[in-house]
Write a structure and sequence with these properties.
single chain; mainly alpha; 3 strands; 9% strand
């Protein structure tokens, strides 16, 4: 087949309609047209058309992934899910993820480390909620557990919870009944992911819980 016309799309000036033998063949981005050097009069085999279309899909999927990564770091699952929503084929998504992984733009282990580090700075918590959030984001269980083991190695969770408790008490209204303070503080620490035995230790030291 021979390319008989290349014209801009009316609603998408960054794309071109390609006609072969007088009939519409495919719509392509300007980048793809230039990358393959397509011109009126060129002969195209069916195999060449498939190659060009695959190149177009890959370039579009990669551009979409890069836009997502420009906003914030992502896990592999997040990128896969977002590209599927844009209806890119799974084979194309796999190629994009593989290339981004090789270039270290996608790295679930590094993502987990950064997520935990930032979370502990912005909103200190125990490992339970951090683990749950990372698993929901698609980080593999073994990676999550390794990163959390590294992060919390040598960290005294009771001391960390006690520090949070003192900061929380300072923000509470003055004159709270002890039972009310214990209840609020216990719920707060539990929400931060601390197990009940540590919560009880902290309550005994800060809120007069002698049970």
């Amino acid at each position: 087949m021979r390319i008989t016309r290349i014209e801009p799309q009316q609603r998408k000036p960054g794309r071109r309609n390609i006609y072969a033998d007088g009939e519409f063949l495919v719509g392509l981005s300007v980048e793809t047209v230039l990358r393959h050097g397509l011109r009126t009069g060129d002969e195209l085999s069916p195999e060449a058309v498939r190659t060009i279309v695959a190149s177009e899909e890959f370039a579009g999927a990669k551009k979409a992934a890069m836009r997502l990564l420009a906003v914030r770091p992502r896990t592999e699952r997040e990128i896969r899910d977002r590209l599927r929503l844009k209806e890119f084929p799974d084979t194309v998504i796999a190629r994009v993820v593989d290339e981004l992984r090789q270039s270290r733009l996608l790295d679930d282990e590094e993502f987990a480390r950064m997520f935990v580090r930032d979370a502990l700075v912005l909103r200190p918590a125990g490992r339970i909620p951090l683990r749950r959030k990372l698993l929901l984001l698609g980080v593999a269980k073994e990676l999550v557990d390794r990163v959390l083991d590294e992060t919390f190695a040598g960290v005294d969770q009771a001391d960390a919870a006690l520090g949070l408790a003192h900061a929380y008490i300072k923000k509470c209204p003055k004159g709270l009944e002890p039972v009310t303070l214990r209840s609020r503080l216990g719920s707060y620490l539990a929400r931060r992911g601390y197990p009940w035995d540590i919560v009880q230790q902290v309550l005994r030291k800060t809120a007069g819980d002698d049970e």
